[in-house]
Amino acid sequence: MHNVAPQVDLQSAARQIMEEHGFQPDFTPAVEQQLSEILNGAGADSPLPGLRDLRSLLWSSIDNDSSRDLDQIEVAERLPDGKIKVLVGVADVDCVVPEGCPIDQHAAVEGTTVYTGVKNFSMLPEELSTGLTSLLENEDRRALIIEFVVARDGSLAQSDVYAALVRNRAQLTYSAIGRWLEGSGEAPAKVNSSPDLQAQLRLQDECAQTLKKAREARGALNIDTIEVRPLLVNEKIADLVQDQKNRATELIEDFMIAANEAVAQKLETVSSIRRVVKTPERWDRIVALAAAHGEKLPPTPDAKALNQALLRSKAADPDHFPDLSLTVIKLLGPGEYVLERPGDPEQGHFGLAVQDYTHSTAPNRRYADLVTQRLLKAMLSKETPPYSDAQLADIASVCTQREDAARKVEREMRKRIAAVAMSDRIGQTFDAIVTGVNEHGTFVRVLKPHVEGMLAQGQHGLDVGDRLRAKLIRTDVHRGYIDFARVD
After folding, report:
1. What contacts 24+ positions apart, CB below 8 Å, involve 378-386?
2. Residue 5: what pLDDT?
3. 100 conformational bin, left if phi > 0, alpha if psi -120 to 50, beta if neither
4. Which residues of the chain have pLDDT under 70?
5. Measured between alpha carbons, how far is 258 from 74 in angstroms, rounded to an integer?
6. What is the pLDDT of residue 469?
7. Domain limits of the chain?
8. Comparing C-alpha atoms, which of 281, 385, 277 is closest to residue 341?
9. What is the CATH number of domain 425-487?
């Protein structure tokens, strides 16, 4: 069956889905008024005591190709004893958005920036998150510096947090730096023209790989899900592009994990918000899943054993590994924010193999990080913490709920975007793999482009992992449905 997809305003659809999940896509008049005052030069607070001037360091950022809400920059230095000192500069959002102001009140309700693929619904006004509070290239900014020293074995030898002025010398992207670090592409012009920047990035990569190996030795899970984003041409979806993890994404991931661990340790003497993934209650299901893939896991939760099984499964069946990863993620359960008071037992992050962990490195995008930043600044200024335990517990609960809602919005939009991208390919045949069989039907994933849909015809006798040729027979862009038929 061939059909012509109706025209769909995806931005309007995104706004509607946001509202259905309790978000407020528009800023209030009070927020707009405060924003106007900020842009006219009012509202910034006084510098923190001991503010250092680190603008001369060779800072750089690495983020997505289109990102302008830059929360962190990095620089590293090899010490005489062979250890590597890393400085992560995190945008000082609180200096522009103080607690309790209209913009802060809006951010507290939203909890997070939502990325729908066709429009970003920012937690903060974009004039701030992509402007005044973003660590943009060649702009002087205030930041909190998370400094940590990495020993040769990947352990954190020491850490510190302090305030500084910084200047991003090179705004770089995951795709370009990843290809260069892996030797599959040329360095971007600003890197190619600077031997010092090349050496700096190589040092950061070396340090990140050391951190990664140490985490893996402790049992950090190798999870490899596939993410796709729309390629927009003249504001219309021309294709779907698959984002791949590479050395650059790993570099930032490992630096941020270490930085968040260092911040959690810094805050051990005060009440704060922790990011946790608890020991999985459904470990028996993970054991059964591993057994179905020929792996034997111990009867009690063991992250290291699970990671080794995942690595073997990835080597044996790389095409199906993203689907296995997604199943494991679902069985582990989502991360959540919790209050942790001094002396409370550490709940830890099972997936990262980290015992004491928080979120602190994305205050433009996540409200929990902005709250953590205020706790750090109060500590640096030797002031009373700005939040009570009850307030922190409420903030943690709201942030967890809003993050869950954001995932649902983004998932619903991915389905609609995929349906639009595939709507003019009805009748074409693709290589596919079965990703799910349940009472709702049989579901398949096309290998290229990466889209999922229901096998509406010829589904009998198939099971998860089976490969087939599938013909696209129908799309429903309003509901995000994609239907395939098995081709013999």
Report:
1. 379/266, 379/267, 379/270, 380/48, 380/49, 380/50, 380/161, 380/162, 380/163, 381/48, 381/49, 385/270, 385/271, 386/99
2. 43
3. left
4. 1-7, 42-49, 225-226, 232-235, 238, 353
5. 12
6. 93
7. 15-267+356-378, 283-330, 425-487
8. 385
9. 2.40.50.140
